[in-house]
Amino acid sequence: MSVEPLNRLVKLAARAFYDDITTKGDNLPKTGRSDNRGIAVVVLDALTRRQWVREEDLAKDLKLHTKQLRRTLRFFEEEKLITRDHRKETAKGAKIYNAAVAATADGHHTGKEGDEKIKLHTHSYCCLDYAQIYDVVRYRLHRMKKMLKDELDNKNTVQEYICPNCGKRYNALDAPQLVSMEDEYFHCEVCNGELVAESEKLTAQEMGDGDENARRRRRDKLEDMLKKQEAQLKPLTDQLNRVKDLPVPEFGNLQAWEARANAAARAANGDLNGNDPSKSSLGLGFGGTPMPFVGETKVEVAFSGIEEKGENIKSESANAPMKVLPPWMIKQGMNLTKEQRGEAKEEAKMDGSSAPSGSVDEKKSATESVDVKSIQDEYVKAYYAAILQRQREQEAANKEQELPSSSISNGAYNTSPQRQLGMKSKRDDQDEGDDVEWEEAAPAGNAIGNFKVNDLNVQADASGDDEDDDGIDWEEG
Amino acid sequence: MFFHIVLERNMQLHPRHFGRDLRDKLVSKLMKDVEGTCSGRHGFIVAITGIESVGKGLIRDGTGFVTFPVKYQCVVFRPFKGEILEAVVSMVNKMGFFAEAGPVQIFVSNHLIPDDMEFQSGDVPNYTTSDGSVKIQKDSEVRLKIIGTRVDATEIFCIGTIKDDFLGVISDPGATS
């Protein structure tokens, strides 16, 4: 999240300053095909979505030629926007990097194919240097403004002179060499032509030679330019101000970053291994509160595994950011988080909702008093409980009809239509309050609600077969 | 800006000066050699104020000259960007005017002269305000601000401005005479 404003800054700066940068050498003739303006912006945007990235991978992702990309990157390096690291490495070194990439790049895809053929090559990596970018952009703006301001009030500018004959340029510091004995003008050292003052650096097109009108016109034009500059760069300056007090994400150099990312990945993996089987039982252990919390952590780094341990501390109000987000939040980080949370939420719901179902009715009474929940959640809970009860009954009925030895998936397929039917039939004679509640709960998570109904069935089968402590069995198996 | 610093120099002394007043000769030669010179690093050496130490002389093979390493205190003058100086106008032309502040030459281009001063050519070229109250011509004293310096190994040249508050003519020699 914290990187998002900075990324926005990078994108704005890219569009403001590097939009029409070509990285072609001057000696090459410019044809329509080789016109690569805008590449710089694309590359910078791509870099905002990555941390350290191998340049070959970046090239592959962007479908650019490596050489072309490298030229662009070298340009950015000179502009101090990115840091690069070159090193000779074997396949092993590449693997370290790949592991690190796998650890960080959960949401975005980086091409990792083709690392088998690495023997011992020099590889270049690059990464945005956010702290420096901030300074560079600020400095650039400052210089632009200063140049215009100086020009505007003619202050502290070193006067330049130009020879109209041979085009040689001088400035005021050359004055003693230029002054000639015969008249009061400056003369060119080369051709002895009379020098003219190059008065308007920025507004050279109107060669008003010092007379009052021209001077005023020049002033107006400069003021206009200054105003325009301020207006057009406003988004950028705003973003700079916004970023000012934010901590800058520090990736460190390549080695440090790799080490960190790998460590994080290992931690996450270790946890995941222990996690997978226990996931179904997790809900049981934590008092049957569904935890759609995993998605929240995934937004930033792949630390989710670690954080899951402290899961029960947070209530399921983790839903809240989905519903109400302050506008600034939406602007900055929404794209990424939403989709990520969306997919994460789905799976979280899967195991979150499936697991607790067995114990909701027992444990809920205990947990209800502890954590304060939204009314909707209450409804959902009550609904679950009701459904579960009905399921139990249904299950009991089913068991007599068909054998429980059918596989879970089969059971799910088989039972769901039956369940629907059963529910319908049951609901008719059951209380009407449930129906109403369902209607209210639906808008909160429409798709999810439906999802849960199906999902509950799966679990219901399992929980129906073995008793409430089935979670422990899962964990061991 | 003026500084009082210690510098060192290897002095070569002709054998004919070897005698009772060798030291005096050495100092006078040092003054003759050094005062008024300019080094890019330290600026103009204005005056030698004292001798710190004279090292052991080394006789050169073949010539008989002796080299003494001499440490001496001196006052140096080095102009800096942003410094305010008082200078005497030495030349006025259409492009601006030249002024001298001691050994330093300063050029003020006509863009850095206030807009209300116009160049008047003629017998005594000058810059004059429209009401004629202020006039810059040769030998005028001006207060100016240095906005740029060019420092070579043996030469310092400055450009200045009088287009700022409290800058400009201090006293007009034409008015007093």
From TrEMBL, chain A:
Biased amino acid composition, Basic and acidic residues: 338-350, 360-370, 392-402
UniProt cross-references to PROSITE patterns, sorted A to Z: HTH_TFE_IIE
InterPro entries per UniProt: TFE, TFIIE/TFIIEa_HTH, TFIIE_asu, TFIIEa/SarR/Rpc3_HTH_dom, WH_DNA-bd_sf, Znf_RING/FYVE/PHD
Taxonomy, superkingdom: Eukaryota
Entry protein name: HTH TFE/IIEalpha-type domain-containing protein
This protein's UniProt keywords: Coiled coil, Transcription, Transcription regulation
Presence of the UniProt keyword Methyltransferase in the record: no
Keyword Coiled coil among record annotations: yes
Domain HTH TFE/IIEalpha-type: 6-138
Family membership: Belongs to the TFIIE alpha subunit family.
Chain segments annotated as coiled-coil in the UniProt record: 212-246
Biased composition annotated in UniProt, kind: Acidic residues: 430-440, 463-477
Composition bias, Polar residues: 403-419
Stretches for region Disordered: 338-370, 392-477
Taxonomic source organism: Cinchona calisaya
TrEMBL record, chain B:
Top-rank taxon: Eukaryota
UniProt GO BP: DNA-templated transcription initiation
Keyword Transcription part of the UniProt annotation: yes
InterPro entries tied to this protein: NA-bd_OB-fold (IPR012340), RNA_pol_Rpb7-like_N_sf (IPR036898), Rpb7-like (IPR045113), Rpb7-like_N (IPR005576), S1_domain (IPR003029)
Keywords: DNA-directed RNA polymerase, Nucleus, Transcription
GO cellular-component term (any): nuclear DNA-directed RNA polymerase complex
Compartments in which it is found: Nucleus
Residue ranges of every copy of the RNA polymerase Rpb7-like N-terminal domain listed in the record: 8-64
Sequence ranges assigned to domain S1 motif in this UniProt record: 79-156
Pfam family, one: S1
Keyword Protease: no
Family: Belongs to the eukaryotic RPB7/RPC8 RNA polymerase subunit family.
UniProt cross-references to PANTHER family, sorted A to Z: DNA-DIRECTED RNA POLYMERASE II SUBUNIT RPB7, DNA-DIRECTED RNA POLYMERASE II, III
Known function: DNA-dependent RNA polymerase which catalyzes the transcription of DNA into RNA using the four ribonucleoside triphosphates as substrates.
Protein name: DNA-directed RNA polymerase subunit
Source organism (scientific name): Cinchona calisaya
